[in-house]
Design brief:
This protein is 40% helix and 17% strand. The protein is α/β, with parallel strands linked by helices and 571 residues long. It is elongated. Mean pLDDT is 88; it is low at 559-571.
Amino acid sequence: MKAHHWSTACVDWEKRIAQGKSLIPFDPLFLQEAEAALNVFKSLKVVDVPGMPTFGECCDQWVFDFVGAIFGAYDAEHGQRLISEFLLLISKKNAKSTIAAGIMVTALIRNWRHLNELLLLAPTIEVANNCFNPAAAMVNYDPELKKILTVISHKRSIKHETTNSNLKIVAADSDVLSGTKAGFVLVDELWLFGKRPKAAAMLQEATGGLIARPEGFVVYLTTHSDEPPAGVWKSKLEYYRDLRDGKIHDPERMGVLYEFPKAMLKNKDYLKPENYYITNPNLGRSVRQSWLESKLREAMDGTGEEDKQSFLAKHLNVPIGMSLRRDRWAGADHWQAAEFTVIREFEEFLDRCEVVTAGVDGGGLDDLLGLCFIGREKESNTGKRRWLLWACGCCHKSALEKRKQIATSLRDFEKDGDLFICDNAEDDALIVADYIEQVLDRGQFPKENAIGLDTVGVATIIDELIERGVKPEQIVGVPQGYKLSGVTKGMARKLADKSLVHGGSRLMAWCVSNAKTEKRGNADYVTKQAAGSMKIDPLTAAFNAFDLMSRHPVSEGGGLDDFLNNPVMAI
């Protein structure tokens, strides 16, 4: 392959991964550079393995393919690395942190620039130590390396005595990273950075030094998240998937993603022991088949869906669509199966409905506001009176500061178009009124009991609705708390039989997964307070809209007779 003609896409990855073949679709761009680096890498000792073998003695070929691709992308003649950013997504226990240490020690040895900085960035001190300890051991247990490299344990750094370059292993901290001019950067456990609201700025600070060091690289290593992907991790994952699939052409970046093909995910083939190798290329080495089988049985036989999902995500790289808690709302189990993405757009939702009810659940300036519409479908290929659900949310900018734990997720929902982050105090009321006015103008609301609200903190919204022409009799307070028990049970049942479907927004999936249920006598009690900082306001708004739709309303512009007389359409 000529260095100026290559693609990092791997469009046949599903076939390759099933056959146990390399996920890197080309040979190293510069074979001599790859071989020189691999000679160093393969000579490094893995001290915590019995017998202290070298990488060359204990690693499988997939490791050498990845390391060779990184170092083999360097054009020594022009002092430039042609592929400068890499992502490795791999299951837990596949020696990821040890490989990270080996890559950075190799980079320190191969680096020619004097006074260069090399940075191995970890999200926590524990992860930083997991990387530093094997890196330090590689030096301390090799007499030859000790002649040129010095381990400084209290600083978690390794110094090259000839070039005076330093490899630093640090836990993520914006103060530590300030002014960093690292020429080589490796970021471990990228998924954990996805939970940090300022992670994008942090990583930009860490990798900014590469602008003046064209020979450098950035390598991201990670497992899947134990929660739905968020923030910088979600962005990177989506980009590298598109890159791998050939949807994006970016020859300066390359991803190696050990994931199950879509068909295997759909059929749940990841539960079969004979398929564990798909996302565990180190199976039989650092990962034992019998251990995975035992732990999977334990997770599957347990009472907690949360434990099961966490195991599948971390050890088999099965992505989590929704985080299901032990005390979850019953409808959560059926939420994903009830997706009907055709109604993602509000106009499309309204076009399909013959009558609509709305639900609002308002909050303070540091809270979310939920808005939901439920409509009875005009036409269906089943002949059933299917209900359609569309929802969105609002929050003020102050909520991002006061609720930093969820700020990254809120920003993601804003990008999806399902959450509005408001600058002014009255903006959320105006947004709610704008949506409701569209339904009002179409005559799709019933004459009474059209808009259900939790009556606390919604005076501004009610005033705005009256101003827009909503009649007082169309606005009704919906009893909350245990009095919603019948609604929560009824909505779960309609999700289960798919007579209630939704557009599949990540905001609503997040709210549903946050909803916790408490037993109060015979009632299921689903409240915002039980969900803590993980908000459920748009879901509560859905309960309010569901309550009103359960009363079999007739729209001002038509009725049930219109619905029953409409021809059935194919979807």
